[in-house]
């Protein structure tokens, strides 16, 4: 039998609603912080054993239905020939941003299996350690979000430089997106071949775009990555933050599951994504700091909006925040399982 998450992604009737949490492997866990005291972020991913250990920590602690591989959305970028520094409290920083056709031409399409070999071996380890009903989630960054970091040189909310390139130098923009789509397609497929049961695309900043800009400048490249995974017979999750106005466009680009953030009701988001898709979400991560009664009420509301329909994966509307109490995460997982058990 396939993992519970995979069957839900296919909108099969399942024994309970599956639960996992974006950024469940990370700063909310003391056992993760203990590892990070000794190892830098990218250093963890240079070890298959450390990658697997950090990935498995929240599964052991919370008994969630999936392990999402521990890596960064920028992981494939340094092998393309562009160094990335992860600055605490800031995010990815690029010392030499991509701004010209010459900058794009200098980017390489790497031998991705060699470049990320420890992560792929980490997937094999994690798959062996999980129960058959638990899934391994591979992931990669959405092409717009990654391109935005490369062009801006650091995180941005306005993406002024990025949009200036899109509108004023579209040939440079499309050249960059071509290389990202090719590299990230290979990266996602390599994860599947290593044992990932499902792959999620995180397009964290896609909400900065209008629907028409998304269709013109992003959709073809997201579609290429999603189609590459689907060609392997593996389901996909397509998630963007602040994307309530883009859900139809995201669904058209692809994804067996459309991720919803907390800014839209789950039932309203499902209508926009389409009845032929599963959905994932969508509790506000900040609610995990509220009294349990409020968390429970909000969770009941999400489950009521799902209304028992096949195809709902319970998750937050974005990642677990660093100071979240791990015990609350485990209690929430147990509550959803109890409420949805068939």
Automatic annotation (TrEMBL):
Residue ranges constituting the Uroporphyrinogen decarboxylase (URO-D) domain according to the UniProt record: 18-27, 137-153
Question: Its Enzyme Commission number?
Answer: 4.1.1.37
Q: Does the keyword Metal-binding apply?
A: no
Pfam families from the xrefs? URO-D
Q: What pathway does the UniProt record associate with this protein?
A: Porphyrin-containing compound metabolism; protoporphyrin-IX biosynthesis; coproporphyrinogen-III from 5-aminolevulinate: step 4/4
- PROSITE patterns xref list: UROD_1 (PS00906), UROD_2 (PS00907)
Q: Enumerate the InterPro entries for this protein.
A: UROD/MetE-like_sf, Uroporphyrinogen_deCO2ase_HemE, Uroporphyrinogen_deCOase
**Alphabetically ordered keywords of this record:** Decarboxylase, Lyase, Porphyrin biosynthesis
Signal is among the record's keywords: no
Give GO cellular component annotations, separated by semicolons.
cytosol
Q: Which family does it belong to?
A: Belongs to the uroporphyrinogen decarboxylase family.
Which protein are we looking at? uroporphyrinogen decarboxylase
């Amino acid at each position: 039998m396939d993992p519970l998450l995979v069957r839900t992604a296919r909108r099969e009737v399942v024994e309970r609603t599956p639960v996992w949490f974006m950024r469940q492997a990370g700063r909310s866990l003391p056992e993760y912080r203990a590892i990070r005291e000794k190892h830098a972020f990218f250093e963890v991913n240079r070890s298959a054993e450390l990658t697997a250990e950090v990935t498995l920590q929240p599964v052991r602690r919370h008994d969630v239905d999936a392990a999402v591989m521990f890596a960064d959305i920028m992981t494939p970028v340094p092998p393309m020939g562009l160094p990335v520094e992860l600055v605490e409290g800031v995010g990815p920083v690029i010392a030499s941003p991509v701004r010209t056709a010459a900058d794009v031409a200098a980017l390489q399409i790497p031998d991705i299996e060699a470049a990320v070999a420890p992560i792929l071996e980490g997937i094999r380890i994690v798959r062996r350690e999980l129960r058959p009903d638990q899934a391994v989630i591979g992931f990669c960054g959405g092409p717009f979000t990654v391109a935005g970091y490369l062009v801006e040189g650091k995180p941005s909310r306005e993406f002024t430089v990025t949009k200036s390139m899109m509108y004023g130098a579209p040939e440079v923009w499309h050249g960059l997106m071509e290389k990202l789509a090719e590299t990230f397609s290979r990266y996602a497929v390599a994860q599947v071949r290593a044992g990932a049961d499902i792959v999620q695309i995180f397009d964290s900043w896609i909400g900065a775009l209008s629907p028409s800009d998304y269709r013109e400048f992003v959709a073809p490249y997201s579609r290429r990555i999603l189609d590459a995974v689907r060609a392997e017979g593996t389901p996909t999750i397509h998630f963007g933050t602040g994307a309530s106005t883009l859900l139809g466009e995201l669904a058209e680009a692809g994804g067996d599951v459309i991720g919803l953030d907390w800014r839209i009701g789950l039932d309203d988001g499902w209508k926009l994504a389409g009845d032929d898709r599963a959905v994932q979400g969508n509790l506000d991560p900040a609610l995990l700091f509220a009294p349990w009664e409020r968390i429970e009420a909000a969770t009941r509301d999400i489950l009521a909006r799902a209304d028992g329909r096949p195809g709902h994966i319970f998750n937050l509307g974005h990642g677990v925040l660093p100071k979240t109490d791990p015990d609350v995460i485990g209690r929430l997982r147990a509550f959803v399982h109890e409420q949805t058990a068939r």
